[in-house]
Amino acid sequence: MARAHRPSPELPAHLATLYDRFPFERSFRDDPLCEIRPYSTDRSHTEVTALYGATLAIGNTTSIRSSIRRLIELAGGDLVRAIEDGRSRETWRGFRHRWIRGDQMIHLAERLRTTYDSYDSLEDVFLEGMGANGFAGGIDSLARSLRGPSRGSRAPRGYRALFPSPFDARHSPAKRLTLYLRWMVRDRFPDFGYWRRVPMGELRVPLDQHVFWIAYHLGLTHRRTRTWETVEEVTASLRRIDPADPIRFDFVLCHTGISGDCPKRRDIAVCGPCAVRPDCLLWRSVRAAS
């Protein structure tokens, strides 16, 4: 049986070097956050705009950014006002992003209006679930609030699937809601940090395909599928490196994959300068065979 790949003792230092050298401005321009930041004037606008942005975070970043921009334009540049006065009902009907449709975005506006009738902030919804069942419970509480009741619901076809929970039968990694939590809680660039009552050290990694591939090859997880258990395992590995800010490296790892800085195969021309190449399973196996 092959021996499990474990992080090298040098990985924390190598990750720090990768972070320090990373071209944040280049990747920020290619991230959904660049479309959201102009509308992050206060907590309310950030909370709503970021939620729609995270919900649309499916597919390549160019398409995601274009769809976020289009949705905001259809809302007249103010998603909060569009939700409050009901303008979304008319302006979003023809909207489409991959399999996400305008009627689903309209229903999300209705769910937000209902939620804000009972809560001052979505942070309150998250904390209610977190207090009972930990971080996964907070995600579940947020997902259930956004999905609405399972019976007698007027939700459009496919709407409820937009907000999976770690407690669902498939143990979803809930990538888009954990991404949303990172944006709202983490108070360091490029995130917003408007939610002050959720400890930053409790955040979980938003496990997209790029972060998962790199995390596996750095030995941060031994799991081969993206589930909530994998999220917890990767986050626990990162928390040992930085307990106060365990997902500090998420943006860097994600955009290392998106940008092609990690080709996901051995290519010395690309991999040569990479700070974590000595830790990568692909390259460690080359040394072991030599």
List the helices and strands and how they pair.
Layout: H1 11-21, H2 24-28, H3 33-36, H4 43-55, H5 61-74, H6 79-85, H7 88-91, E1 96-97, E2 100-101, H8 102-118, H9 122-147, H10 175-185, H11 209-217, H12 228-241, H13 250-258, H14 268-271, H15 281-289
Helix pairs in contact: 4-10, 8-9, 11-13
**What is the global morphology?**
globular
Structural class: mainly alpha
Q: What percent strand?
A: under 5%
DSSP summary: helix tally = 15
Percent helix range: 40-55%
Q: Domains counted in the coordinates: how many?
A: 2
Distance between the termini: 20 Å
Overall radius of gyration: 20 Å
Number of strands: 2
Low-pLDDT segments = none
Secondary-structure element series: HHHHHHHEEHHHHHHHH
Mean pLDDT: 93
Main sheet, how many strands, which sense, barrel? 2 strands, antiparallel
- In the sheet with the most strands, the strands line up as 1-2
What does this structure look like?
This protein has two domains: 117 residues; 170 residues. 54% of the residues lie in helices and 1% in strands. Strands 1-2 form a two-stranded antiparallel sheet.
